[in-house]
């Protein structure tokens, strides 16, 4: 109790320091007559800005990988990347009291309480006797869930894409089962960034080379396999390769993952066991009409692995293998891209800007509002996705170990220059304009162009010339700290901004993280058959349908 009370009092002191002079118009503690500007010639305002930054640094302390420095956080990767060096108790109290960040904390707590106390209990009672072996039952649950959310009338805070009238429903008519819908989800669903063009040039740095693919492909099958590009023309794999029409979704980083201990399947009396987590190779052909089409899926990355096609397999067998492609992509997406790259790596921008930009800096409010909720959210919830027995360990087939390994890969590969739109689109060879249907690419390009215009106009309104950038000591201090040679450890980040264009690029890329976060966190899992995170098989080898293979606990 004494330690707990000490934590509360320490945090209250921090809040008092951060929000000194409450009688003034702003809770930042600065004289309202001090202008918003890059720098100031008024000595009193300059001094106040320095004090303002020092107060912020008193809270926003960073881990630095130095094991001799006392660490307050239990974050798993605190020695690999910078993290907020405060205890969980301190973070909870600080952000609950902070006049700005407490808004997000209240919304998050409210939503959790509504879901766990108001929505889930009646849904559980209504559906607990359902066997969930037909599409109709999953549709009913899906509609009941969305109906409960809609009744809240809080779409401005809590909503899923399926709640909006222009969303095309694929569940009721079972269109989700089709090959077209499966391909569309590779291009417009959760994490639509994994498909790659296959190149014959062994020196090609984009997509995947055929040499690499051939090392894991069952060539005994594919050497005689033909793929239709229209009703009359079929191509061999060599012809498709030469015409740059061959594409695959193969996530080789998932090759060696093993199942975790199953903690969630509530029906312990059945004869099922977890199906092996696979790393399938889904093969696509670019047809003459500009649409990609799935033509084959190889079960595992081995030269003797079985290959299924729509014509050589039973309908449920084919559907189940497509589900394994979905499962692999979802677990990789959330582990490496969502958790590792977006939350763990890019949080440094929101964690550190307040250590250098005073509340009177022109850039301050931009980062303040775009970062709202970011730091408290991830610093309070990382344990739920990385620790044994927590939520992810229970619902993912690879458990918590999978996200930990994948997030560490993202941390080790972090690079300011590659986690970009071009890195995802051109880097995968998906900038081919013959591909007519790729909503993520085309919509993201529009948003990115608008972000670029916004960044340019805004920077021009703040900085008259390049010297203004170089002379902006608060900005330059932040840039220096973000670089790989300093506490920020962001590989590829410059140590200094010499030109306005560098700041424009940074602002555009910072806004890009919103786009990629939306894409990797797309709310398709609410209809479980299209987003399976666990799949089961019968212990005696009796074939199961896809719906029979889903977790009974869900």
TrEMBL record:
Domain Lipoxygenase, chain residue ranges per copy: 176-554
Annotated signal sequence range: 1-20
Keywords: Dioxygenase, Metal-binding, Oxidoreductase, Signal
GO process annotations (BP): lipid oxidation
Protein name, as recorded: Lipoxygenase domain-containing protein
Matching InterPro entries: LipOase, LipOase_C, LipOase_C_sf
UniProt xrefs under Gene3D superfamilies: 3.10.450.60, Lipoxygenase-1, Domain 5
Xref: Pfam families: Lipoxygenase
Domain of life: Eukaryota
């Amino acid at each position: 109790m004494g330690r707990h009370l000490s934590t509360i009092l320490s945090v209250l002191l921090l809040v008092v320091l951060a929000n000194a002079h409450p009688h003034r118009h702003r809770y930042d503690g600065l004289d309202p007559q001090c202008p918003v500007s890059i720098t100031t010639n008024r000595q009193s305002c300059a001094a106040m800005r320095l004090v303002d930054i020092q107060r912020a640094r008193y809270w926003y302390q960073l881990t630095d990988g130095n094991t001799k420095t006392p660490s307050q956080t239990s974050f798993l990767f605190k020695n690999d990347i910078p993290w907020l060096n405060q205890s969980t108790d301190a973070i909870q109290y600080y952000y609950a009291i902070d006049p700005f960040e407490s808004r997000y904390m209240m919304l998050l707590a409210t939503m959790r309480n509504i879901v766990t106390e108001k929505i889930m209990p009646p849904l559980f009672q209504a559906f607990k006797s359902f066997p969930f072996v037909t599409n109709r039952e999953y549709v009913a649950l899906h509609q009941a869930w969305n109906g409960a959310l809609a009744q809240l009338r809080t779409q401005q805070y809590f909503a899923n894409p399926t709640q909006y009238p222009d969303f095309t429903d694929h569940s009721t008519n079972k269109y989700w089962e089709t090959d077209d819908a499966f391909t569309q989800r590779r291009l417009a669903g959760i994490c639509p960034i994994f498909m790659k063009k296959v190149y014959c040039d062994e020196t090609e740095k984009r997509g995947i080379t055929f040499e690499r693919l051939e090392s894991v492909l069952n060539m005994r099958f594919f050497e005689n396999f033909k793929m239709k590009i229209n009703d009359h023309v079929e191509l061999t794999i060599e012809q498709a390769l030469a015409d740059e029409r061959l594409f695959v979704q193969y996530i080789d980083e998932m090759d060696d993952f093993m199942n975790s201990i199953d903690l969630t399947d509530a029906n312990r009396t059945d004869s099922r066991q977890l199906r092996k987590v696979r790393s399938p190779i889904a093969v696509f052909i670019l047809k003459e009409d500009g649409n990609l089409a799935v033509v084959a899926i190889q079960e595992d990355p081995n030269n003797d692995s079985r290959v299924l096609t729509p014509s050589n397999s039973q309908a449920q067998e084919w559907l189940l293998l497509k589900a394994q492609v979905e499962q692999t992509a979802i677990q990789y997406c959330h582990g490496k891209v969502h958790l590792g790259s977006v939350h763990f790596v890019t949080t440094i921008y929101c964690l550190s800007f307040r250590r250098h930009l005073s509340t009177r800096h022109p850039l301050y409010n931009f980062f303040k509002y775009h970062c709202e909720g970011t730091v408290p959210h991830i610093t309070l919830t990382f344990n739920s996705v990385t620790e044994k027995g927590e939520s992810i360990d229970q619902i993912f087939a690879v458990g918590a170990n999978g996200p930990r390994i994948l997030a560490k890969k993202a941390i080790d590969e972090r690079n300011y220059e590659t986690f970009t739109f071009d890195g995802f689109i051109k880097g995968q060879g998906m900038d081919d304009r013959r591909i007519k249907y790729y909503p993520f690419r085309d919509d993201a390009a529009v948003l990115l162009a608008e972000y670029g215009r916004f960044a340019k106009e805004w920077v021009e309104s703040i900085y008259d010339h390049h010297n203004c950038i170089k002379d902006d000591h608060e900005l330059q201090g932040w840039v220096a700290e973000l670089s790989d040679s300093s506490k920020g450890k962001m590989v590829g980040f410059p140590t200094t901004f010499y030109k306005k264009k560098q700041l424009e690029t940074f602002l555009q890329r910072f806004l890009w993280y919103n786009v990629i976060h939306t894409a990797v966190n797309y709310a398709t899992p609410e209809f479980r058959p299209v987003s399976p995170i666990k799949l089961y098989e019968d212990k005696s080898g009796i074939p199961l349908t896809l719906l029979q293979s889903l977790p009974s606990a869900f």
